[in-house]
Automatic annotation (TrEMBL):
PANTHER family: RIBOSOMAL PROTEIN S15, BACTERIAL AND ORGANELLAR (PTHR23321), SMALL RIBOSOMAL SUBUNIT PROTEIN US15M (PTHR23321:SF26). One of its GO terms (biological process) is translation. It comes from Aspergillus tubingensis (strain CBS 134.48). Residues 1-34 are annotated as: Disordered. This is Ribosomal protein S15.
Length: 246
């Protein structure tokens, strides 16, 4: 009996060790590997650049608007040059230039994402996800998915309508956006251990991403679009395979 118990205990211990090794090889269902795209999303407020603008403002659009407002508010020269005072005109031009510089600095601070909150940073991350994984871009960069087995009775699909505008709703874009939200919540929960509400939100986001990943893998047959998504997001099999318990 004693030998039987020892063998059973050794077997259970070995099974636990193998299960732990298996979990380590599969990966983490929540965290992503530090790929270049993930590093871009992990930029904090201190590392945001001046070119990152809020409210969907572009650097070129901001410069054009500032130049237009400068021309609108510039002092008008006296058409009668005989009665004009060059000194007053010079002082007015210098005053206008200084006021424009002050307004320019104020506007740049207002629209800078570095001065925004977490919601503003997340909006910027969502834009990056759309620009990186949107099919309006990847359709021309990635080869098509592997073709399935064709039958005589297979459904004949009509030709797709050309895409208009950016892609914001495809599964890969939604997975990337969910990954950005998961990273944000995970970073928040590292400092607030008792936030049960957001722990539940994190669990829901992880399971929602798992569902989308399974759908995309089945739909794309594990093709280039699926591989590109998994590589850029640094996700392992644990993100979609098996049961996720948190």
């Amino acid at each position: 009996m004693a030998q039987s118990r020892q063998r059973k205990a050794a077997n259970i211990s070995r099974q636990k060790a193998l299960a732990k090794e298996r979990e380590g090889s599969v990966g983490d269902p929540v965290q992503s590997e530090p790929t270049p795209f993930i590093q871009e999303l992990r930029k904090t407020q201190a590392t945001l650049q001046d070119t990152d603008l809020n409210y969907f403002v572009t650097p070129d659009g901001l410069n054009e608007a500032l130049e237009y407002s400068k021309n609108l508010t510039s002092p008008i020269r006296n058409p009668d040059r005989d009665t004009a005072d060059p000194q007053l005109e010079k002082e007015a031009a210098e005053k206008h230039l200084q006021e424009h510089r002050n307004a320019q600095e104020a506007i740049r601070r207002i629209v800078s994402v570095a001065n925004g909150n977490t919601k503003d940073h997340m909006r910027l991350h969502i834009q990056k996800c759309i620009e990186t994984f949107g099919r309006h871009k990847t359709d021309s960069e990635l080869p098509p998915k592997p073709s399935g087995v064709s039958h005589d009775s297979a459904t004949v699909h009509l030709e797709k309508t050309p895409r208009v505008g950016p892609d914001t709703g495809s599964p890969e874009v939604q997975v990337a956006i969910l990954t950005a939200k998961i990273m944000n919540l995970s970073r928040h929960l590292q400092t607030t251990k008792k936030d049960r509400h957001n722990k539940r939100n994190l669990r829901l986001l992880v399971h929602k991403r798992q569902k989308l990943l399974r759908y995309l893998r089945r739909k794309e047959r594990g093709g280039p679009r699926w591989q590109n998504l998994m590589e850029k997001l640094g996700l392992s099999e644990a993100a979609w395979k098996g049961e996720i318990s948190m």
